[in-house]
Amino acid sequence: MLPARGPPARTCGARSPRRWTAPPSGRPPQDKAWWLAIPLAAILGQCFAWFYLVRSYRLLNRANYQIVGALEERLPASPFWRAEWWALGDGNDRSRYWPLSDIEQWIPILFALAYISGFLTAVLA
């Protein structure tokens, strides 16, 4: 058979190729950007819960250590309550001991600030 001459025949449902055009900017339109407030509220709620969870565990541990200290006062030796805390400067010398719960409580705050700044950057930029 001889090949057909002229424009190629269209097949069923075929379309001519269109050129892709980029959106005018890489960010969502202003009316759509405020929808980001919904996941921001959820994430900030998680940061709030995380902060209070760490705080709750810190208070619980403090109470547990007071109980251990009260029990050690009745024993002939007090390796934790007196000796360990004495070696750490009674927890007041930051060069020897920095309570982990103090550091842990800053982490959810820093995450919340990062999320808020990212939200504001997306909305206001």
Automatic annotation (TrEMBL):
<feature type="region of interest" description="Disordered">
    <location>
        <begin position="1"/>
        <end position="28"/>
    </location>
</feature>
<feature type="transmembrane region" description="Helical">
    <location>
        <begin position="33"/>
        <end position="54"/>
    </location>
</feature>
<feature type="transmembrane region" description="Helical">
    <location>
        <begin position="106"/>
        <end position="124"/>
    </location>
</feature>
<dbReference type="Pfam" id="PF24838">
    <property type="entry name" value="8xMP"/>
</dbReference>
<dbReference type="InterPro" id="IPR056918">
    <property type="entry name" value="8xMP"/>
</dbReference>
<keyword id="KW-0472">Membrane</keyword>
<protein>
    <submittedName>
        <fullName>Uncharacterized protein</fullName>
    </submittedName>
</protein>
<keyword id="KW-1133">Transmembrane helix</keyword>
<keyword id="KW-0812">Transmembrane</keyword>
